[in-house]
Amino acid sequence: MSLFRQLIEKPWQAGRGRRADLPNGSAFSIPTPTVGLRFLLAVVTVLFSLLVVAYGDRMALSDWRPLPEPALLWLNTVVLMFSSLAWYWACINARRGDPDGVKLGLLAGGGSAIAFLIGQYWAWQQMIALGYYAESNPANAFFYLVTAAHGLHLVGGLVAWGRTASKVWSGEDVAKVRLSVELCAVYWHFLLVVWLILFALLLFT
Amino acid sequence: MAYFIPTAAEDVAPAEVAEVDLYHPKSFVTKYVFSQDAKVIAIQYAFTAIAIGLVALVLSWLMRLQLGFPDTFSFISAEAYYQFITMHGMIMVIYLLTALFLGGFGNYLIPLMVGARDMVFPYVNMLSYWVYLLAVLVLVASLFVPGGPTGAGWTLYPPQAILSGTPGSDGGIVLMLVSLALFIVGFTMGGLNYVVTVLQARTRGMSLMRMPLTVWGIFVATILALLAFPALFVGAVMMTLDRILGTSFFMPAIVELGEQLNYDGGSPLLFQHLFWFFGHPEVYIVALPGFGIVSDLLATHARRNIFGYRMMVWAIVIIGGLSFVVWAHHMYVSGMNPYFGFFFATTTLIIAVPTALKVYNWVLTLWRGNIHLTLPMLFAIAFIVTFVNGGITGLFLGNAVVDVPLSDTMFVVAHFHMVMGVAPILVIFGAIYHWYPKITGRMLNETLGQIHFWVTFIGAYSIFLPLHYLGLLGVPRRYYEMGETGFIPPSAHTLNGFVSIVALTVGVAQMVFLFNIVWSAYKGKKAGSNPWRATTLEWQTPETPPGHGNWGPELPVVYRWAYDYSVPGAKEDFIPQNVPPDKVAIEDGHKGLYGAAVQPAE
To answer: Residue B209 is nearest to which of A6, A14, A141, comparing CB atoms?
Structure first.
C-alpha cells in the first residue's frame, strides 16, 4: 500500500480489508539500512543547501572578492570521480559474487578517497601560501568552510568503508556484505554530486 | 463486499523485513553502560537530561531572586544574570526537553509501542547517547572556563555574542557552540533510529494508523529535528569561525570601545534566519511529542478512544510541515523587509488551525468519558489549560503589528514559558507518573504526587500569568533590573517579588517529585503488568519491567487500533491491541461488539 493509502486508513474498523492488504509492519519494502541511509542523505542535503544559500546571500555584498581556484581542485575532482567508479565496480562484483573484484573496488575506492582528501589539504596549503587567509575575505572563508564540510563527510564515509572492508577481508560471504557495499557506493556518489555542485559554485562566482 | 477479519496470527501477512538482529550483552559494561538496549539508553538520556535540567532550574531560581529582590544579592551581577538567562534557556529547550522527549521517551516507548524488539540501528543508538553526554559535559565545562559561560541569550545573536562586552566571549561562547554541534551530531544518529524504526520495524498488523499518538508525535518531531538541526549546525560553525578565525560570516564592520575591529560585511540577519529556521521547528519538536503523549494519557484515563484519531494524526503532520514556514515571526522587529512580516504572520495564523483542532479533540475525548482523576489525568488536563493559555497569547504575538510593542517584553517570556515551559513539563510529569509502573514495576506514591501536582500547577500559573500583565505594562525582558523606570509602577516590583516566592515554592515541590521517584523504586506499591488497564502494546509485554528483547520468543500480532476503550458489547472497558477478535470477551446478553453479530470469515 502506498504511504498515502496507509495514512487514510480508518483504523477504528478493527481488522477489515482484503487479506493481502493486512499490514506487515513496514512502510517500504526496501531494506531497513537503505531507508536509514536515505534519511541521512536528506539531512546532509539540507546542510549543504543551507551552505549554498548562505553563500549566495553573502556573495551579493560588495566586499566579495572571488578567489582563483587552484588547478589542483580539478585533479581532485577527477580523483573523486575515479573513486565513485571504483565503488561502482565494487558493487557490480558484489552482485556477481566475486570477492576479489569487491576487494579491488574497495581498495581503489577508499584509496582514491584518501588521495582526494590529501589533495584538498594540499589545495588549502596552496591558498594559504598565496595569502588567501580565511579571515581576509568572505569568499575565502566560504571556500575553506564548504571544502571542510565536504571533506568531513567523506571522512565519515571512510569509517563506513573501514567497517565494510573489515567484513570483506575477514572472509565474510559476499552476499552478506553486498548491501553494505551498495550503501557505501550510494553515499560516495552522493558526495561526488555535492562536490560537483560546490565546485561549480566556487568556479562561477 | 464481504470483509475478511483476521482471527489468528496466520491471517496477517508475514513481515517482509527480517527481525532486528538483537545484540546480546554479556558483561555489566555492555548491559548497563555501553548498552545497545533502547530501554537502557532511554534511562541514560532521562537521567542526564533531568540532571542538567536541575542545573537550569537552580539558575531560574537565581534569576527570580534577582528580579524579585534587586540590590539584595551582591553575587548576582549583571554579567552573571545574563549568563544565567542564557544557560537556563539553552539547557531547558535543547538539553532537557528535546533530549528527554526524543531520547528518553522516544527510546523507551517507540520499540515497545510498535512491537519491535529494539531500535533498528542499536549500535548507532548507543553512540548517540554518549555523544549527547559529551555535549552536556562540554556545556558544563563552559561554566568553569575564564570568563564563565556565555551570556549572549539563548538565541546567541551576533555580533554581541562574540564581542568583549558580552560575558563568556573568551571561551564560553565557543564551548557553547561546540556543545551544540556535538548535540546535533548525536541527535542525528538517534533521530535516524527513531524514524526508521517507526517506518520499518513495526510488528505484524501494526499499520501506521494503528500506532498510538505518542509514537506519531515523537516520529514527526524527529523528522523535524533531522531537517531543522542542520540550520543551527551551520550557524554554530560559522559563528565559531567568526570568533576563532576572525571571518565575517555574521560580523559587520564594527567599532568596539573606540577601536575598529577587523570584521566587515557580515550579516547578523543571516544568523537570525538560520537560527530561527531551526528555532521554530525546535519548539514543535518539543510540543509534538507532548501532544501525542497527552492524547494517550487522556484516552487511557478517561476510558475513551481519542476523538478524531485520523485528524489528530494529520494535524500532527500538518503542524510539522507548516512549522518550517513560520520562522520569521521571531524576527518581526529585526529590521527585515516588512512584507516578510505579512507573509509570516499569515502562515503563523494558519498553523494555529490544526493546533486548535487538537485542543477541541482533546476536550471532546473527555466529554462524557469515564474520567478517572488519576495523576496522569490531572497533569493532562492541566496541560490543556496551560497550553490553551499559552497558545492564545501566541496569537497576539503572531500578528506583526501587535508584536511590535510586545516584543522583548515579559509578555513574550510569559507566552513561551506557558507553551514550552509549563505545558510540556506537565506532560513530562504526567508521562512519568503514567509509565513509571512499566519501567520499574511499582506505582509512584499518590500523596506525594498530589502535593507535587497541585503545587506545580497552581504555582506555575501564579508565576507566569502575572508576567503577561508586566509585559503589557512594557516591562522589558533580559533586563537585570528595572531600577527607577518611570512607567513601571511600584506594584510591578511587588508582583515580581511575589512571583519569585512562588517560583521558589514550585522548586521545592520538584524536590518532592524527585524524592518520590527514588523512594517508590524501592517502596512503591507493586503495579502488576497493566495497572492502568491500557490497550497499547507496551503494557502487554510478558515481563514487567520488559526483559531483553521485550516480547519473549514471539513478537505480538496487532489486530486493532490503540483506542478500543469502552467498546459497546465488550465485557472489559478496554481491548488490548494484540487480542484477536475471536478472543475478545463479550458482555453477557450481547451478540458481539458494537451490537452486531460476529461477521463471517471470507
So the answer is: A6
Q: Between residues 242 and 301 of chain B, which touch chain A (CB distance below 8 Å)?
A: 245-249, 262, 264-267, 270, 274, 277
From A31's Cα to the closest Cα of chain B, the distance in A is 7
Record the cell numbers describing residue B326, joined without a space. 513560520
Judged by CB atoms closer than 8 Å, whether chains meet at A16 and B3 is answered as: yes
pLDDT at B8: 63
Per the CB < 8 A criterion, the answer to whether A82 and A126 are in contact is no
What was the pLDDT predicted at B588? 83
CA distance A44 to A184: 15
Does B125 touch chain A if contact means CB atoms closer than 8 Å? Answer: no
pLDDT (0 to 100) of residue B601:
45
Instruction: Kindly determine whether residue B201 and residue A25, on different chains, have CB atoms separated by under 8 Å.
Output: yes
- Positions of CATH 1.20.210.10 in chain B: 36-248
Q: Please tell me if residue B210 touches chain A, with a CB cutoff of 8 Å.
A: yes
Size of interface A-B (CB pairs under 8 A): 173
Residue B17 one-letter amino acid:
V
Q: Does ipTM exceed 0.90?
A: yes
CB nearest to A19's CB, from B11, B209, B593: B11
Percent of chain A that is helix, strand, coil (3-state, to 5):
75, 0, 25
Cell numbers standing for residue B448: 506525594
CATH among 1.20.120.80, 1.10.10.10, 3.30.70.360, 1.20.210.10 for A32-204:
1.20.120.80
pLDDT for the residue numbered A205? 78
**Any A CB within 8 A of B233 CB:** yes
Superfamily of domain B36-248, CATH level 4:
Cytochrome c oxidase-like, subunit I domain (1.20.210.10)
Low-confidence residues of chain B: pLDDT under 70: 1-21, 595-602
Spatial CA neighbour of B575 closest among B589, B587, B590, B560: B560
d(CA B352, CA B398) in angstroms, rounded, equals: 10
Look at the pTM and tell me if it is higher than 0.90: yes
